[in-house]
Every structure is written in C-alpha cells, then in structure tokens.
Amino acid sequence: MPDDGQKVVYGGNCSGSGGAGNPGGTGQYGGARGGYGTGGLLVLYASIINNTGMIQADGSAGGSGGNAGGGGSGGGSINIFYTTSIINGNITASSGLRGNGTAVGGYGGMGCITIGNISTGTFIKDE
User: What is the reported pLDDT for 118?
Assistant: First the structure.
C-alpha cells in the first residue's frame, strides 16, 4: 500500500484502458483497447534521396469508447543516410493520439528522426 498520503481504492466502479503495444492491450471493466504497434523502424541509405512526398513512422491512436480511452502508441525511428544530396520533403515520427472515453487515454511518446551525410565515411548530422 503506498504511503504517500494518496488514497487507494480497491473494487467499486473502476475501469482501465489498454496500453499501446502489438497488439494493443485489452481494456478492462469498460476501458478501450490501446493503440496497435508502434511507429516502427525505417532506415534509408542512398546516394541521392529525393523525397517529394511524405516519410512517416507515426504511432497508432488508442481505442475510444467505454469508460476509459486507450493509450496511443509511440512514434517510430526514421534514420536517413546519404552520400551526395537530399531533398527532405515531409518527415514525421509523431506520437499516437490518445483514445477518448469518460476518461481519456494518454498520448504515445514522440519518435525520432536522424538525417545525415556519410560521404566521408563519418556521420555528419544535418541541422
């Protein structure tokens, strides 16, 4: 039992939402399922990268409905390495949105994006 002055309630009308994962966790007592999967891992290596569209590794949204919304999954990791040139375009690794319910779930964590030149044999991160 915690001794931090907070009241702990057992039983009664409680609900819990599922956490993000692969698959998303199952909600309990009327809570929604968590988001499926994560943003994943993407590694690109090329001499010239010409991104005129979108590269994304975004997290999944948590489930909605019931007493508690599910938690969103985390964004993924995008790693782009080039030797000659790059046109970035749109690149995202955003968190999964929280699910809605009587109580909302939590957002997933942000992902990361790393872009850099390796033409000299040493990684030089783009700013």
Answer: 93
Q: Is 125 helix (H, G, I), strand (E, B) or coil?
A: strand
Q: Which residues pair with 124 in a beta bridge?
A: 117
pLDDT digits (tens, 9 = 90+) for 61-77: 877 777 777 778 888 89
Q: Which of 66, 57, 71 is nearest to 21 (CA)?
A: 71
CB 46 within 8 A of CB 10: no
Distance separating alpha carbons of residues 106 and 73, to the nearest angstrom: 9
Handedness of CA 8, 10, 15, 21 (dihedral sign): positive
Instruction: State which amino acid sits at residue 73.
Output: S
Q: Name the one residue in this structure whose structure tokens are 């997290």.
A: 59
Q: Which residues pair with 4 in a beta bridge?
A: none
Q: How far apart are CA 71 and CA 124, in angstroms?
A: 36
* CB-based burial label for 69 (10 Å; 0-12, 13-18, 19+): buried
